[in-house]
Write a structure and sequence with these properties.
The chain is an all-alpha fold. The chain has a domain of 84 residues: Signal transduction histidine kinase, dimerisation/phosphotransfer (DHp) domain (Helix Hairpins, Orthogonal Bundle). Helices cover 68% and strands 0% of the residues. Helix 1 packs antiparallel against helix 2. It is elongated, with a radius of gyration of 30 Å. The protein starts with 16 loop residues before the first helix and ends in an 11-residue tail after the last helix. The relative contact order is 0.07.
């Protein structure tokens, strides 16, 4: 049988212009999002890197104050100096964690288990003053 043996030919078509435009828009959006994520990673790296030196100075000088004047001033001063030292150390940890986070795509390591209770303890330490100021009560339940 040949085409000439038929009186007519059916041709079916579908307009896929809208689908192709949507695919193009999605691809363009994904490229923009990827670029934005890369910019954010660079910013996090630069910010965390630049914050390390001043934080080292704050911690070092507050530790120097603690060693040199600890016990020579009143107990409130000793307590305040200790708050400065501990706060500076926590900030160093946060900045270091931010630096690690900024490297997650370039130096990613495999996922590992995390002790959630330890994470909660650290968060509560970081938020201690805010919790005290607001008379907040934090309740947790054990993880299964």
């Amino acid at each position: 049988m040949f085409l000439a043996d038929y009186d007519y030919v059916n041709v079916y078509g579908e307009n896929i212009t809208a689908k192709k435009q949507a695919e193009y828009s999605l691809k363009e959006y994904m490229e923009n999002l990827k670029g934005s994520n890369e910019d954010l990673e660079r910013f996090a790296y630069i910010a965390s890197h630049d914050l390390q030196e001043p934080l080292r100075n704050v911690v070092s000088f507050s530790q120097l104050l603690s060693r040199r004047y600890g016990g020579k001033l009143d107990s409130d001063a000793d307590e305040f100096i200790e708050y400065i030292v501990e706060g500076g150390k926590r900030m160093q940890t946060l900045v270091s964690d931010l630096l690690d986070y900024s490297r997650v795509n370039t130096r990613a390591e495999p996922f590992q288990s995390t002790d959630c209770e330890q994470v909660i303890d650290k968060v509560l330490q970081n938020l201690y003053f805010i919790i005290q100021e607001n008379d907040a009560v934090i309740e947790t339940t054990p993880f299964l």
